[in-house]
């Protein structure tokens, strides 16, 4: 992966973006998602509205700020780690996506505090839940594409990507705390493994 040189300008941009994300999460934690405006986020971050819109299209995007980077890393992982064409091995395809998720997460995951805020907001805001589901769906389409690139049959690539999404949504729903998300994700995948074994017997 090619990284641009770390210029002063790039560092300033990263800092401004991080300030906006931090301010937004603080305000969401204090007032809930629906009661926070872009103007109040910009004010708390000490930037202008124009600066806010240079980084984010709306306040929802701030919550999923690193989503694009995470999907990108996952797709790269799929392309790098698929040793032979996957064909129609659904089990292997789902396993590879799970590995890809684990590999990408440490680089892009929200801090536990931000994660806790997001989980709470998703419970409270219907608007936000639908946006979250849309980001998961877009991610599944991208991952299915990456699986197809490494020789997975189309139906298996699509099913594997949506199965991984189902496991993630299940874990989100059942995790009482952000810390328990990983354990719930493991459980969801184990249940799928059981399903595979039952089908085979």
TrEMBL record:
HTH tetR-type domain mapped to chain residues: 14-74
The keyword Ligase appears for this protein: no
InterPro entries per the UniProt record, alphabetical: DNA-bd_HTH_TetR-type_CS, Homeodomain-like_sf, HTH-type_TetR-like_transc_reg, HTH_TetR
Source organism, top-level taxon: Bacteria
Feature: DNA-binding region: 37-56
Keywords of this entry: DNA-binding, Transcription, Transcription regulation
Organism: Nocardiopsis codii
Name of the protein this chain belongs to: TetR family transcriptional regulator
Pfam families for the chain: TetR_N (PF00440)
């Amino acid at each position: 992966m090619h990284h641009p040189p770390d210029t002063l300008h790039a560092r300033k941009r990263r800092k401004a973006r991080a300030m906006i994300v931090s301010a937004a999460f603080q305000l969401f934690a204090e007032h809930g998602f629906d009661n926070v405006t872009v103007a109040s986020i910009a004010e708390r971050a000490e930037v202008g509205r124009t600066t806010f819109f240079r980084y984010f299209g709306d306040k929802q995007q701030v919550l999923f700020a690193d989503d694009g980077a995470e999907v990108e890393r996952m797709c790269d992982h799929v392309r790098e780690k698929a040793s032979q064409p996957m064909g129609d091995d659904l089990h292997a395809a789902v396993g590879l996506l799970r590995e890809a998720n684990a590999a990408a997460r440490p680089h892009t995951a929200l801090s536990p505090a931000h994660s806790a805020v997001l989980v709470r907001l998703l419970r409270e805001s219907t608007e936000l839940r639908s946006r979250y589901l849309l980001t998961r769906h877009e991610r599944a389409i991208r991952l299915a594409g990456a699986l197809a690139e490494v020789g997975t049959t189309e139906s298996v690539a699509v099913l594997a990507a949506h199965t991984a999404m189902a496991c993630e949504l299940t874990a989100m729903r059942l995790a009482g705390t952000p810390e328990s998300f990983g354990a719930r994700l493991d459980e969801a995948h184990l249940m799928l493994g059981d399903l595979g074994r039952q089908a085979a017997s």
